[in-house]
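Next up, sample data:
>
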Amino acid sequence: MKGKLLKIYFLGFLVIGLFFGLQALEAQEVLPKGSSDFESAVEIESGEYLVDREIEDSTYEFFKIEVKAGQALKIEMLTPASGGYAGAAIYNPEKEKVIEDVIIGEPNQKLTLNWLSNASGKFFLSIGNEYDINVKGAKYKISLVPYFDASSQEDAADVSKNALEIEKGEFVGYLAGAQGSDTLDFYKIKASKGETLTVKVIPQGVVSEKSKAVLAVGLYNLKGERVKEELAKTEGATVVNTVKIAADADVLIGIECDQFCSKELVKYVLEISSEKPEEGGVVTDGQKTPPPQEKDLGAKSSPKTNWTLIALIVILVLAAIIVLVLLLKKNKNKLETEEPKTGYLGGSEEANKPIVGYKHPCRYCGKLVPPDSSVCPYCQKVNPLGPLRCPKCHNPVNKDYKTCPHCSLKLGIKCPFCGEETFLGDYCEHCGQRLMVVCPNCKFEQLPLSDKCAQCGQPLKKEIT
């Protein structure tokens, strides 16, 4: 009897050992050899991979993977117990680098990259780093994490005409913040005349319950025109937007969170409710009074004509015209003889500054961005606003200048990527790559203006970022 029990125990332990052994082998599938460029990038699937080789510094292996709108491409890196460097980067379907990071020599160090896309397509990823050999034994876990909106198995569109149709109730949605291109969600809901529509949005963290996101919630008509917008007062605050409906109509709800709103992925709870006013007004001290008048969505007003106010406005306008004519006459000679200021595009330095409070088109993709943007939240390119400036003296220059008229710096450079002659700006005019080099000694990022680093003075190996 004891012999039979021992055999049963032995077989049980053997089965358990085989199970966990297979799991370990599956979790450590060897990373296939990637290609050296985008065109021949190797197709890869979600899974855990072990790097069985060293990858030289500034050498990258390229892979590609299909991503659906509303999915986050997630890369988790882990260095071995002996330490070492391990890096990765993610590129969009246009082959533009959108996010990258590197583990610098630490043993058993874990690092995660996330990119939540608002469009479906073939994304690219690279394994390797520019600083040192990518260590043998590093582990990479590649996964596609679904962050679909309102339990729809799809992403809420970022354009009003493709808004996701929902009903009143409670829903969960996701936005990318600084970790993706999914920064705006549009929903469409039916509303009835006379009701007051209330939209409440509560930000939450994806990893933790708390979030520091500063969300914006707007209400729009079907033409895509914004009727009312509310912005969170503090980090992580709930946003409430309320409007009275003037006629039966579809209402669009826009929820926004870009790189200025949050550095991390954001989960939000969307609560939509409505209420209708009681008929016959409100009872106060036994007397019925009419309900208070509110501004309706799309309602037309018919104010009583105030002729006294109109006459006063006409007098003020005439007085302003007379004063303006006198001032123009007085300063006519001065305006004719005064030489315009030179050295700045548009005639003055102030003219080149963006108007505070207004959005301006990005010089690269043409989409409207905030006036203080240092990076375009749509195309991810730096310095999207303002005039082109000389990288040495920072005076404004034109794109067709061969040299700077102020410091005589040559404004043409041979692109290290495509070899074509291009203007010395932030990006190559031909291949679109960013014209920056990193000092191998102090890691200072700079334009390739000299063979030596502008910060530490050491020889500059032109490694393009």
User: Anything to note?
Assistant: DSSP finds three helices and 28 strands in the chain.
